[in-house]
Amino acid sequence: MIIGVDGNEANVNERVGVSVYTLKLLEYFKRTSDKNTQFIVYLRESPNTDLPVENKYFKYKIVRGSHFWIRFFLPLHLFFNRNINIFFAPAHYSPSFCPVPIVVTIHDLAYYYYPNEFLKKDLYKLQNWTKTSVTKAKQIIAVSKTTKKDLHKFYSLNDSKVQVIYNGYEKKHSFPFLKNTAKLSVTNKPFLLYVGTLQPRKNVITLIKAFNVVKKTIPDLELIIAGKKGWLFNEIFTLVEELGLEDCVYFTGFVTDQQLAYLYQNARCLILPSLYEGFGLPILEAMSFSCPVISSFSASLPEIGGNACLYFDPNNIDDLVEKIQQLLTNQQQCSELIQKEKLRIREFSWSRCGTQTLEIIKNAYQNNLQ
User: Fold this and answer.
1) Fewest CB atoms within 10 Å of the CB: 31, 95, 158, 254?
2) Which residues form a coiled coil (predicted)?
3) Does residue 64 belong to any structural domain of this protein?
4) Is residue 288 part of a domain?
5) Residue 138's closest CA among 370, 360, 335?
6) What does the mean pLDDT of the chain come to?
7) Domain coverage including residue 275
């Protein structure tokens, strides 16, 4: 069997979210490739040097094209070069027409809940191209039960067509921290940590307001916000200025794995205040470094964090203030959470994610032969 894979999400320099997911699956596919299970990874451009190296059963195929690559250029190539048995799309979009069965992964449907956070052209593609993908797919992978529920809600799919496979996690190696690193010129003061894109549904505004209250009783406390700018983020920076927090709230922008490891390892806790998440990978990353987690009780986050997080109502600033103060002042509760984290992260791994994903792809192929 030869499996075609869209590898473009992994072929980027700054990987977050779906890009990490795609890379980890490509690494797993490379490790498990053999004469019976071969892979052709389709890319618009030459593979970055940190992508898995080709071998006899794991190859890259460059198909040049524009922004309509997945809708025109790749389908055209697949039509005239019928050398795969099934196609796997790891990020919502699959070829508009394809001579073989398709398996697609859907990560979240935030674009239905928060359409204003997306550019019009991106919103159109997410709503319409995703609809095409899930309609034509032989099998759909959802990264959480929350995403599966949303797929049924917005696309009215048969239950048997959607399988839940959780993302894995990988502990980021710790490296000595260089204080002259421009993006992380932080002090040795205690700090709270947020990791994620800056956009409204991430609810960073609520976090900053809660931090402002807590800081009145813990003056040395700081807040580090690690993540790229997304959409409609100006309000976040304006609020920091209005509250006079410029000297204690740090915006790092994108951080490397080494920098992120340092942050998890040294933060008093990670706070994930999101109103909606399809999965919530920072929860697992923080847990791998024994970093306590305070998470909003919304969407998939309780599903991923289990009993190893403190939860709060994302629409209630006072609730978040209470949870932060509780965690910072109760060492016993903090230690108990860390112990629970060690058990929780055992339930997630990229190897398990890869194994289950490959099994679904193989089953979809076999079922198509019947």
Assistant:
1) 158
2) none
3) yes
4) yes
5) 360
6) 91
7) 182-347
Residues 269, 294: Cα–Cα separation, whole Å: 7
Residues 198 and 120 in one domain: no
Same domain? 38 vs 80: yes
**pLDDT grade, residue 179 (50/70/90)?**
very low
**CA 240, chain centre distance (Å):** 26
Phi and psi angles of residue 88, each rounded to the nearest 5 degrees, phi first: -115, 125
Residue 25's CB is within 10 A of a number of other CB atoms, namely 24
The three-state DSSP-derived secondary structure of the chain is CEEEEECHHHCCCCCCCHHHHHHHHHHHHHHHCCCCCEEEEEECCCCCCCCCCCECCEEEEECCCCCCHHHHHHHHHHHHCCCCCEEEECCCCCCCCCCCCEEEEECCCHHHHCHHHCCHHHHHHHHHHHHHHHHHCCEEEECCHHHHHHHHHHHCCCHHHEEECCCCCCCCCCCCCCCCCHHHCCCCCCEEEEECCECHHHCHHHHHHHHHHHHCCCCCCEEEEECCECCCCHHHHHHHHHCCCCCCEEEEECCCHHHHHHHHHHCCEEEECCCCCCCCHHHHHHHHCCCCEEEECCCCHHHHHHHHCEEECCCCHHHHHHHHHHHHHCHHHHHHHHHHHHHHHHHCCHHHHHHHHHHHHHHHHHHHHC
Nearest CA-CA partner of 314 in 333, 301, 331, 329: 301
Structure tokens at 341: 């984290």
Paired with 229 in beta bridges are 198
- b/e map 46-59, b = 16+ CB within 10 Å: ebeeebbeeeebbe
Tokens of 310: 């403190």
172 pLDDT higher than 80 = no
CA 156, CA 306: separation in Å to the nearest integer? 28
What's the rounded mean pLDDT across residues 37-63?
96
pLDDT tens digit sequence for 198-244: 888 999 999 999 999 999 999 999 999 998 887 677 889 999 999 99
pLDDT digits (tens, 9 = 90+) for 111-122: 999 998 888 888
The whole-number pLDDT of residue 187 equals 58
Q: How far apart are CA 42 and CA 78, in angstroms?
A: 10
CATH of residue 48: 3.40.50.2000
